[in-house]
């Protein structure tokens, strides 16, 4: 069985040399949370330029659905590249795009259209423009702690860190942010049980005082808040939100960029919520197993914009679409179920670790979207960013890759092919690392 193998001090000599060149030529805006320089990958394993082998528990930020270099993905993109790499799909429709769109629309139960782009941000931009175009309303609602992208439009929604906005104001879109219903850190003076109702009440008050609901085009929401800390909302919240929004004709835009494509153990994360299908659903990250692709899926009745009103040169790239077709096959062939079962197992085992180490204050998630929140002590639940960073760095030094989320959480978002034995390696390593970091 494969296991993490670290032969050199980290970063190794080759990695150090490349990192130095990178620092000298690449934009400062790139953040390198860990000094890793990958060279190749296979399944859930990543090998760096110095031959060190890591278990990949973050999958390129929840992207590599089918793992690294899945043979069926490699074969599909190779075959597609021999036929058509690019002709611009908004000018000349070609397979596999219509088939891919049909498959995605079918998953929503029919009655939707699809606009393909290249990234999560682009998918969200399309949704914002469409919501404005169809409702003729100026304002948007979104959640504190959310991440929806970094272009001028999407960053107007993003509120997970002020570093994304500092120096870029004023924002392009007028967005009112309300607290995300976080049961571990309930805002508005509420409790874990009442936070969902408190947020809804807060929105009703806004509608009465400062935000005329008839002027709100849409609310944009993450069914599990990702970058903000992998926060699972209380049961029934989004169904109740949908009901409130429907009173005023406000569109529901589900940002499934990180949660979609099976990550949470269902194809779409909103399927956990017992709600009607949202008006607009945006997918990206995991959809094409690492190839750039977004899909903005919207209700047929919203399809009123004329030809050329929105578009893209590379969006719906043929090679990405070929990768997405195989990704969907593999998801249907067992990976969604694997995300639910091995992900559920990981959550249970990490809860056992939390019972042993109280400064791992919360373990939460669905499927293979798992958040670990680190605190100074259980009584105050103080956010311990330094401890989280130490755990992330020490886990990397032990050969397990994780990634931060929010102020003090760590995310586990492995490829959906992760098996139980690999999950055990992650749990054992994290337990050891957390034990040492909190000793
Ligand atoms: C929920 C969500 N929406 C949108 C985005 C933006 O996607 P991209 O980085 O592909 O533009 C992200 C990226 O992390 C995300 O997590």
Corresponding CATH architecture of the largest domain? 3-Layer(aba) Sandwich
H/E order of the elements? HEEEHHHEHEEHEHEEEHEEHEEEH
Biggest sheet: strands side by side, in what order? 4-10-9-8-7-5-6
| Tally of separate domains | 2
At the fold tier of CATH, the topology name of the largest domain is Aspartate Aminotransferase, domain 2
Helix fraction by DSSP (H/I, runs of at least 4): 25-40%
* Assigned CATH class of the largest domain: Alpha Beta
Tags for this entry?
Aspartate Aminotransferase, domain 2, binds pyridoxal-5'-phosphate, four-stranded mixed β-sheet, about 450 residues, single chain, Aspartate Aminotransferase, domain 1, 2 domains, alpha/beta, seven-stranded mixed β-sheet
Please explain how this structure is put together.
- The protein has helices spanning 13-25, 59-62, 71-83, 97-107, 120-135, 195-209, 237-247, 318-356, 385-397, 420-438; strands at 38-42, 45-48, 53-56, 112-117, 139-143, 175-178, 216-221, 251-255, 280-283, 294-299, 360-366, 369-374, 400-401, 403-405, 409-412.
- With 439 residues, it is α/β, with parallel strands linked by helices.
- The chain has 10 helices and 15 strands.
- It has a 7-stranded mixed sheet, with helices on both faces. A 4-stranded mixed sheet has the order 1-2-3-13.
- Helix 3 (71-83) packs antiparallel against helix 8, helix 8 crosses helix 10 and helix 9 (385-397) packs across helix 10.
- The model has no long low-confidence stretch (mean pLDDT 97).
- The chain is globular, with a radius of gyration of 21 Å.
- The protein has 2 domains: 13-70 and 335-438, Aspartate Aminotransferase, domain 1 (Alpha-Beta Complex), CATH 3.90.1150.10; 87-316, Aspartate Aminotransferase, domain 2.
- Pyridoxal-5'-phosphate is lined by residues 61, 119-121, 124, 147-149, 222, 226-227, 255, 257-258, 284.
């Amino acid at each position: 069985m494969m296991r993490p193998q670290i032969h050199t001090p980290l970063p190794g000599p080759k990695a150090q040399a490349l990192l130095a060149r990178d620092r000298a030529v690449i934009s400062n805006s790139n953040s390198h949370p860990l000094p890793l320089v990958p060279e190749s990958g296979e399944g859930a394993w990543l090998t760096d330029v110095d031959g060190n082998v890591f278990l990949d528990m973050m999958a390129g930020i929840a992207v590599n659905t089918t793992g690294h270099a899945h043979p069926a993905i490699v074969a599909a993109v190779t075959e597609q590249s021999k036929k058509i790499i690019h002709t611009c799909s908004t000018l000349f429709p070609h397979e596999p795009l219509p088939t891919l769109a049909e498959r995605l629309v079918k998953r929503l139960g029919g009655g939707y259209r699809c606009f393909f782009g290249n990234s999560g941000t682009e998918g969200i931009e399309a949704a914002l423009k469409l919501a404005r175009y169809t409702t003729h309303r100026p304002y948007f609602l979104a959640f504190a702690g959310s991440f929806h992208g970094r272009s001028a439009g999407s960053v107007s929604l993003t509120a997970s860190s002020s570093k994304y906005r500092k120096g870029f104001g004023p924002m392009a879109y007028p967005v009112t942010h309300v607290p995300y219903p976080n049961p571990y850190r309930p805002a508005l003076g509420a409790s874990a049980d009442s936070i969902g109702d408190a947020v809804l009440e807060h929105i009703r008050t806004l509608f009465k005082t400062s935000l005329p609901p008839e002027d709100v085009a849409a609310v944009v929401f993450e069914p599990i808040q990702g970058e903000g800390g992998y926060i699972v909302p209380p049961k029934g919240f989004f169904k109740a939100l949908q009901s409130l929004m429907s009173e005023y004709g406000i569109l529901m835009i589900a940002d499934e960029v990180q949660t979609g494509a099976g990550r949470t153990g269902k194809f779409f994360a909103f399927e956990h919520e017992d709600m009607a299908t949202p008006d607009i659903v945006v997918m990206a990250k995991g959809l094409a197993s690492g190839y750039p692709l977004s899909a903005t899926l919207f209700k047929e009745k919203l399809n009123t914009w004329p030809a050329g009103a929105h578009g893209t040169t590379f969006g719906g790239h043929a090679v990405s679409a070929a990768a997405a077709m195989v990704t969907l096959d593999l998801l249907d062939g067992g990976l969604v179920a694997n995300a639910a079962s091995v992900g559920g197992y990981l959550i249970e085992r990490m809860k056992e670790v939390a019972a042993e180490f109280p400064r791992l204050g919360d373990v939460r998630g669905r499927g293979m979207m798992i958040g670990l929140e680190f605190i100074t002590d259980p009584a105050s639940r103080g956010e311990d960013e330094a401890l989280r960073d130490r755990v992330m760095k020490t886990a990397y030094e032990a050969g397990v890759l994780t990634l931060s989320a929010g102020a003090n959480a760590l995310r586990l978002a492995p490829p959906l092919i992760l098996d139980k034995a690999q999950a055990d390696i992650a749990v054992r390593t994290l337990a050891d690392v957390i034990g040492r970091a909190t000793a």
